[in-house]
Amino acid sequence: MPKIKRLLSSSEAILEASDQMMKRDNKLILIGEGINDPKGIFGTTSNLFKIYGKDRVIESPISENGITGVSIGLSINGFKVLLIHQRVEFALLSLEQIINNAAKSFYVSNGKHNVPIVIRMVIGRGWGQGPAHSQSLETVFSSTPGLKVIIPSTPYDAKGMLISSIFDPNPVLILEHRWFHFVKGDVPKRIYKTNLKKPNVILKGNDITVVASSYNINEVIFCSKILKNFGISIEIIDLRVLRPLDTEVIFKSVKKTGRLIVFEIGNKIYGVGGEIISMILEKDFNIFKSSPSRIGLPDSPTPSSRALAEKYYPNSSDILKEISKQLNVNVEVQEKIINLLLDKIPENEIDVPNPEFKGPF
Amino acid sequence: MPKIKRLLSSSEAILEASDQMMKRDNKLILIGEGINDPKGIFGTTSNLFKIYGKDRVIESPISENGITGVSIGLSINGFKVLLIHQRVEFALLSLEQIINNAAKSFYVSNGKHNVPIVIRMVIGRGWGQGPAHSQSLETVFSSTPGLKVIIPSTPYDAKGMLISSIFDPNPVLILEHRWFHFVKGDVPKRIYKTNLKKPNVILKGNDITVVASSYNINEVIFCSKILKNFGISIEIIDLRVLRPLDTEVIFKSVKKTGRLIVFEIGNKIYGVGGEIISMILEKDFNIFKSSPSRIGLPDSPTPSSRALAEKYYPNSSDILKEISKQLNVNVEVQEKIINLLLDKIPENEIDVPNPEFKGPF
Amino acid sequence: MKSLYKNLFSSLLKLRMTENEIAKKYSEQEMRCPVHLSIGQEAAAVGVCSNLELQDQVYSTHRCHSHYLAKGGDLRSMISELYGKRSGCCGGRGGSMHLMDPSVGMMLSLPIVASIIPIAVGAALSLKLKKKKNVISVFFGDAAVEEGVFHESANFASLNKLPIVFVCENNKYSCFTKINERQPSEDITRLAKCHNISNLRMNGNNLINVYEKSKMIIQQIKKKPEPFFLQLDTYRHVEHCGPNSDDNLNYRGKSELNNWLKDDPLENFIKFLKGENEYDQKIVNEINDKIMIEINSAFKFAKNDKFPNPASIKKFVYA
Amino acid sequence: MKSLYKNLFSSLLKLRMTENEIAKKYSEQEMRCPVHLSIGQEAAAVGVCSNLELQDQVYSTHRCHSHYLAKGGDLRSMISELYGKRSGCCGGRGGSMHLMDPSVGMMLSLPIVASIIPIAVGAALSLKLKKKKNVISVFFGDAAVEEGVFHESANFASLNKLPIVFVCENNKYSCFTKINERQPSEDITRLAKCHNISNLRMNGNNLINVYEKSKMIIQQIKKKPEPFFLQLDTYRHVEHCGPNSDDNLNYRGKSELNNWLKDDPLENFIKFLKGENEYDQKIVNEINDKIMIEINSAFKFAKNDKFPNPASIKKFVYA
Ligand SMILES: Cc1ncc(C[n+]2csc(CCOP(=O)(O)OP(=O)(O)O)c2C)c(N)n1
Ligand SMILES: Cc1ncc(C[n+]2csc(CCOP(=O)(O)OP(=O)(O)O)c2C)c(N)n1
Ligand SMILES: [Mg+2]
Ligand SMILES: [Mg+2]
């Protein structure tokens, strides 16, 4: 990442990317429920319709399946479409269009119809949203050939990957964690692309590889700082691209560290971790020095109450525990690590991402 | 399995189970598109409406999402519902109901509303059905906590597992491979249950464990017979239950053989195999003597043409190759195995399950 | 004051006062879940539900407080649920968008727009199959009819002559988006007619009218099962989600806003009572006090209630 | 024979003869994919598509042979597709339910009921955005309107005044199930009215009428973009899927069957031509011969065509 200091939140970065791409390409259409309202999808579409008109920034009826089909129709007729859902769950209503038509038209048509549609979908977390507003569903989307599925983690990628998605001739689904919207980071002003091909090493280390994505990255970075005090160096990989899944970067890292933790945004069971571990194992049966671990949501729906949410979402202490286990850290040191963690952990409610954020969402 | 000789095809077994359960429980309702028509969902619902009336065997409008909600409404009001889709793809239209409501109502209601609904969904294969009529989508369904997902392989289980599903207080999704409908086997006349909990060892062996499901089991059995001639003994496990996934039976088997192949009905990438392998590895890091393999559909939609379908679907020779690889079978023997295979392979078109079957359907 | 009027008034006031209290306490940030208040729309819930028997069922959406209370749902369990506490009607698992109290026929509320509608139709089918003379009411907003599943449900209900009232509370907005940006006409009954479903559109802020009309409708359905579609035009007084006014954002026209805020179901009903010479300040005060006590006690209870045991997360995933 | 009549007749006959040939050869089991024949329903495709220009687009369903041919789709590519061959319009990847020939505006056919409808609406939106004076026609059956997405699409098209003709070929059946078991009325235009969409219901087996009416409709749309819904009542002569009659199964009433089989679009058109004194046996013979040659050549081509290269399975998964 270039060394510039232009701090934007991810949602600001998304807005900027959308704005610049709308300006650049008059064949780009935005569509979604609430995109022209005063909240503008958490600020990511604010006022765009004032600049580009309601013909190009289309406020939609509450008809997810319909507008997904409409977007596909536009996109096989020379347009690019950015379709936006305030919660990923709303896209469940349109899976037939996504899985059968967006994903397969290029294939079935023997290369005649590609479907350049980008679907942004927000994963809810916190403030008691409850079971139908806080799923991530990444394997539901990632299991279909023909789709690309990405999950950015930094404002830099929020912009760069959205731009790449819009340039991409394929259907690209973007999973945006609600708390990731608040994350701030350096974002260049220009139009730039971030590749949609592979994970990204964001911290070099030697002892163990931790793969995470989206908001979870922050928890892992937090852990890495604590572990540094104990001479443990972890390599952090930002997964970023769930489909097509290219594990080469992870493989190289594990080749060095011999150890792997996959920290899931979604459920552990039938999550992304199993696929990553199996792929690595297929490439090199002897690569692991210790049993690779997966950390993910437990096998239950998301409860609303913060008392339950606190135990539902795995966090830095779960990561530290797995790392200690794999590295055989002795009990005394383990205790010290946990104590340091408890010292440093922000005095934050579990159901909000940072003190700036006040509900409702 | 008891030693009786009452040969039924799986579709006959399903019809018998449905009939017996309809008779036994007047709170059981069948619903689906075409269930009362002369073809009766490949013979699995034939004439039931004549016995039980159109109030209990409900022919439905072409509204998958609607009737799934209707079925949930019935099922939280004292009924049991067996909902049937002629192709699993049609259920994509109802995923919001399945994933948010069927799967989660028991949880959200703190145990007040359980949803005893069974959804039978047919996986198409062969006769050029093309990309939107031949998916299996098992991970799409299996990734949601609160659902049970099963995929029977024998007529015995077709009946027993359907009966268990109807008795089960949870939402159960049944994936039925189209070719599995034709498979014949022993089926007792009485009402009996087959557990919905775990896989089933269907052939004991020592050298390698092969996990497969549904129609694929036949390919593996075929292989086992060939391999016997070469002193190779494989243990075959019928997976049967995709969620909740209990890998204990597989674990025990691999503990013995040290080797594992998972043969998928669906895609290899983001399939069931990755989850199984990771679970086993978590239980015992040193369990594998060789790199476990996954055989599944390639990462593309299903092409219609039989010339493409032939290469698209993995078959017995792919299994034999993987087994040879893992067991380090020498090249000469490998050649002999393949020759024997080619000798024995039925003179069958690739796109039909057996010579009795003539398209279209 | 006639006992009918007293009941209607009590029910209406209870909804209003409860939600006002929620609004007041929301900024304490102890109710940590989204809340969609029905302030201004209460006549729909009270008018319809006052005609329902215990065995008649109600199904609702994200905006379910009013239906829950009007159907007789337990107040403490509701407030506890908002506080994410153990005695909440969902044990804290659902939050404000999943309110239910099956013991009084308040069966289910769901936050995905229109998702509840086919389920309510299934409930109506269960009545038909059981040959019960009850009725189902399903409440939803003006945006729900834009979801295809509304039509699938309406077609199914019409085809099978099911005993269900579809109650569409048209508050003109889906979040900030006005109905005329989403549909070609604000007359939503057209979407009932097309499925051959009897229907009626009326002002939904006049409690006594809503009560009288829905009484007829429900009686009729109980005599001869058939779906009915009732469009109640109404207005939301506060923001879509949350306790505050958001009219500083100017998404609702000034004159529209003024006209509709004036057309307040509570004031309307008081005016009606006065016109009928049925308004009795003393009784009103008594009702008010009684409700206040109940509300205070519910909030106190909820605040003192324990959080659910974290170990219970894995409970009730499977039956 | 007027050239209009000659064209209409040729088009109609070509559809009929092509599908008859498919039916005849299907039992050879070389066309190994499901086929949904339009025999008996061809006047809809010909009547509407004969009014379309090259830049006007057509979208269709599982029953797409007729629309593909009527819009001018290449016959060889179609037959090759049925044979699963390399020169098939989808390279053998789609089979009979995905026919397309974008070069003539036959854009897409999809086998999931109603799935094509919102895509066609999106295409109509693209015309509006490009300010093109063209029109989209989307064909679907009487069951498609039972899918919620039909309504979502109709609402969207109405709201945005999009240039699209929804052509509903009502053959009364979804597979074996009659429309009155699925909907409360066979007048499907009610589902257009409710979305404020202009509409017309007519017999769909009278080619000249369908042609004349759709001509007016399409001209009108090109002048003033707005959706239109055209219900064409018609009948399928053979089984839902496959080449044979299945009337031995008795799912269609005898008198219904007889009446409708008599109401055959081809015979009707011949009768019409004769009535107008426009029938010329010599020209008809010529047309017949020409089509037969074309068909024979197409089948021959398809049979001799190579299968796609198995290695191409992984091609075109991503662009
Ligand atoms: C399928 C789906 N799409 C979008 C949303 C987001 N959403 C929540 S409430 C709401 C507004 C619904 O409007 P209406 O049905 O009129 O009810 P109101 O809020 O006005 O009572 C929307 C769009 C959702 N919950 N579900
Ligand atoms: C969503 C969906 N549900 C069910 C089917 C199975 N199916 C294929 S064709 C068909 C009949 C559709 O009837 P109609 O729309 O009237 O068209 P027709 O076949 O009569 O031309 C059905 C139900 C499907 N393809 N897609
Ligand atoms: Mg509203
Ligand atoms: Mg039809």
Explain what you see.
The complex is a heterotetramer, with 2 copies of chain A (361 residues) and 2 copies of chain C (319 residues). Chain A has 361 residues and is α/β, with parallel strands linked by helices. Chain A has 14 helices and 14 strands. Chain A has helices at 10-24, 40-43, 48-52, 64-75, 95-102, 105-108, 138-142, 155-167, 216-228, 248-257, 272-283, 306-312, 316-327, 331-344, and strands spanning 7-9, 28-32, 57-59, 80-85, 117-123, 148-150, 172-177, 184-186, 200-203, 208-212, 234-238, 241-243, 260-267, 293-297. In chain A, helix 9 (216-228) links the parallel strand 10 (208-212) and strand 11. In chain A, helix 4 packs parallel to helix 5, helix 9 (216-228) crosses helix 13 (316-327) and helix 13 (316-327) runs antiparallel to helix 14 (331-344). Chain C is of the alpha/beta class and 319 residues long. Chain C has one domain (3-312): Thiamin diphosphate (ThDP)-binding fold, Pyr/PP domains (Rossmann fold, 3-Layer(aba) Sandwich), CATH 3.40.50. Chain C has 11 helices and 8 strands. Chain C has helices at residues 3-26, 42-49, 65-70, 75-82, 116-130, 148-159, 190-193, 207-223, 254-262, 265-275, 281-304; strands spanning 57-60, 106-109, 136-141, 164-170, 173-174, 177-178, 198-203, 228-233. Chain C has a 6-stranded parallel beta sheet with strand order 2-1-3-4-8-7, sandwiched between helices. A two-stranded antiparallel sheet of chain C has the order 5-6. In chain C, strand 5 and strand 6 form a beta hairpin. Chain C starts with a helix and ends in a 15-residue tail after the last helix. Chains in contact: A-B, A-C, A-D, B-C, B-D, C-D. Chains A and B meet through helix 5, helix 7 and helix 11 of A and helix 5, helix 7 and helix 11 of B.
